Amino acid sequence: MNELGMVAPFWVIVLIWLAKVVVLTLVSALLACLGVRALDALTPHIPHRERIGEDPVATGLFISGFFILMGLVIHGAITALTAVTTPIVWYIFDFRTWGLLAMSFVVSLLIGVALFYIMDKLTPKIPFAGIKNSPVAVGIHVFGYLVFFGLILHAALTGPL
Asked: What is the C-alpha separation between 154 and 141, in angstroms, rounded?
C-alpha cells in the first residue's frame, strides 16, 4: 500500500504522538500551578491556598477542580491535530502550540481577574471579598477557576491553528 506523508513504522508515530501528549500535559500542569499562584498574587485580599488547606471540603473541591482541569488538558492534547509531516523534534516542540498555550494562559488569567473585579463592582450587595471568611467558599472559587482555566487550555490545544 502506498503511504502518504512520512514513511515510518506505526509504533514510531504512536511514540511521537504519546511524547507530545505527555509534554503538553506537563506544560499545562505547570501553567495551572502558576495560574493558582498568580490568582493569589492578583487577589491578595483572598488567601486562596491558605484558606483551602483549613477545610477538607475545600481541599476536596480544589483536588476535584485540578482533576477536571487535567482531564480537559489531556483530552485537548490527545485530540489536538496530529500531522506527522515534520521532523520528529519539531513535531514534539511545536512552538506555535506552545505560544498559543502561553498566550491563552496570560489572556485567560487577565480576563478572569478583570471579570472578577468588574462583577464585584457591578454587584455591590454581593461582597466577593467576603469569600475569604469561608474555606469552602474559597475552595469553590478556585474550583471554578480551575475548570475555567482547563476549558481555556483545552480550546488552545484543539484550536485550528
From this structure: 20
* Domain extents in the chain: 22-79+94-158
First to last CA, the chain: 31
CA angle 51/68/102 to nearest 5° reads 90
Find cell 506505526 and name the residue.
10
User: What's the predicted TM-score (pTM) here?
Assistant: 0.78
Question: Is the distance from CB of 72 to CB of 155 less than 8 angstroms?
Answer: no
Q: Is 96 helix (H, G, I), strand (E, B) or coil?
A: helix
The whole-angstrom separation of Cα 68 and Cα 62 is: 10
Q: What is the pLDDT of residues 12-69, one digit of tens each?
A: 778 877 888 888 888 888 888 887 787 788 778 888 888 899 999 999 999 999 999 9
- The CA angle 131-136-142, to the nearest 5 degrees, is 75
